[in-house]
Each structure stands twice: as C-alpha cells, then as structure tokens.
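Entry 12.
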Amino acid sequence: MRKLAITTTAIAAVAFMALAGCSTRTDTGTDGGTDAAGFEEGSLIGVALPDKTSENWVLAGGLFEDAITEAGFEGDVQYAGQSTPVPDQQSQITTMVTNGAKVIIIGAKDGGQLGAQVAAAKEAGAVVIAYDRILENTEDIDYYLAFDNFRVGQEQGQALLDGLEAAKPGGPWNIELFAGSPDDPNAAVFFDGAMDKLQPAIDDGSLTVLSGQTDFNQVTTQGWLAQNAQTRMDTLLQGSYGSADLDGVLSPNDTLARAIITSVEAAGKPDIVVTGQDSEAASIPLIMSGKQYMTIYKDTRALVAKALEMVSTLAAGDEVETNAETDNKSKEVPTFYLDPVVVTADNAAEVYKDNPDLEPLTK
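Predicted 3D structure (tokens):
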C-alpha cells in the first residue's frame, strides 16, 4: 500500500510548540488525567499498533515513526503479528515499559486483554494513551484519542437511509447489517451508532432485514477480514435473496464494503447502497462510480498529529487538552475526539483536495 503523503514537519511543529510550552489547550473540555511532570527530548515513546489489516493502520505506523523522530524523541513503533496478535502486543508493551518509555500509545488488537501490561506501565511512571480503540476494564489509562466513533456509526446509518431514499424513493427497502470484529471495542460502538438511526425504520417497517440477523453478535466480522465478510454475504444472498431484492448493506468499513460489493455483483444483484469508512484508496473510485455509496474520512494524519501534540505537552509538564470522557467499564477516561467527515461522490473532491493521494482518484 502506498503511504499517503504528509509533511511530517507540520506534525513536528505542533509537537515542538507544546514542548516549548506554547500549549494549544483551549480549556473547552474535561481536565486531563495524571499528567507527567515532564521529560527530556530524546526520551523513548512507545507505539503499539494492531496487525496491518487496514490501510489506516499501515499509514499510522509510518507517520508515527517520522513524527516522533522529528519531534525530538526516540520512537519504538511495533505491530502485532497476525498469528498471535494479542500475545505479541502484550510482549511488545512489556518491552517498552522495561526500556523506560515515558509515554506508551496503544492501538489495541484486543482492548480487554492488556490490563496487566498497562498496569505495569503505570507502575513504571509511563503515561498510557489509548489510540483509536479504547482500553477496557482498566483504571491504568490516562487518555483516549480517537474520532467520535458513535457519531461515525450514526453517520453511516443516516447515509444508508439517504442513499436508499435516493435510489428507491419511499421504500420499503431490504437491507443486511455487518459489523466489525468482536474483539475490537470500536466495532460495537460503530454498530450501536448506526442502529440509533436504523432501528426506528426497522421498527416501523420501512426497513426489513430478511435474514433476521440484527443483533451485534450475529453480524460481526472476525478480524475485520474481507474474506469473512464476503463468505457471510454469499451465505445471506443464497439463504434469503433468491427472488427478493437487496437494496442496501450497512458495512462498517471500506475493506468489508468492497468484499460485500464483490459478493452481490457475483450474485447478479448490483446497484445496492453500501456504506463504508476509512477513505481507503481502493474505495474512492467505487464511490465515484456509484458502486459504494459513501465512506467516512478519518484523517490519520490529523490523529497522529494530535497524538504527538499530547506527547509534547506531557514532555513540557503541561496539561493535556481533552473535550470529552469515555466510559471504559472501569472509569471515565479523559478523551479528545476528532470529528469524522462523511464522503460521497458529491463532495469527495472537496474533502480530499488537500490529500495528494486521494484527490486524484476523484477525477
């Protein structure tokens, strides 16, 4: 996969401002967690990321490596392997703690299985930042940084309704529901947000899920793997849509959306409304051609830049900016949410105009 172009000096500039004490804090949100007393340039910053099943995770690793170095710190950026990802990540975080990391940024493979490791990090004096995925059932987490994932789900659900209305005004419509991996805490948040918009239409009969599979545990996609989504879509089509029309599918991300589109096209049921997320390069031409209705743009560059701003604020001994709190089943975690952006064929060129890898794909 190509790494999206980014000027890492821009990230470094934000980080150095915070390091110099030029805080960007606006006092618009919740007070932060237990801020560090400050630490020196050159300190170790650990970044533990899940496996490379998403284009955005691949991108994030490279951005973190460049930005941490240019901000004047030493970086240790690790990915969990595919065969034993949770034990891999547990071991990687333990090594970061042993090596004296001042901040450990964790994009968890399974946010409920890192309690012992983050407890050790806190005991060693490190600040723990959950990145993109919340760490559950632990009090040993200082901050959570992400896009507002419930809102992402709401936007996907509303977009599905909008697309269905545009394609077949007045309905009714037959749809199927997909969710992400059950070991990713974000998956349920996305799904719950979408159902906040879709459930009323299911209740009033405007939407029908012919398979009857409407519970999160029935619609998950283990590992966020495309082949798992395609296999399930094949099964749904064979079991419920022999002569019935399928009008739309709630897909939680672009990778699964493409797999779903492959399945429905092979079954001779094209031209359905399919949602997505992540603005993956492979999905932009599908959006422009109408095969995929929408995606969500969660600019990884902005998320990494914010993470480095937080690190440098901590290095300066200043208070980290937050704007929300998130319940991780043990505490209310000080949180900074960035805003997601809905992208369709109508606004793709404008949304991606500053992204040199995605904007050309909208032509």
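Annotation: The chain has a mean pLDDT of 90. The longest helix spans residues 149-167.
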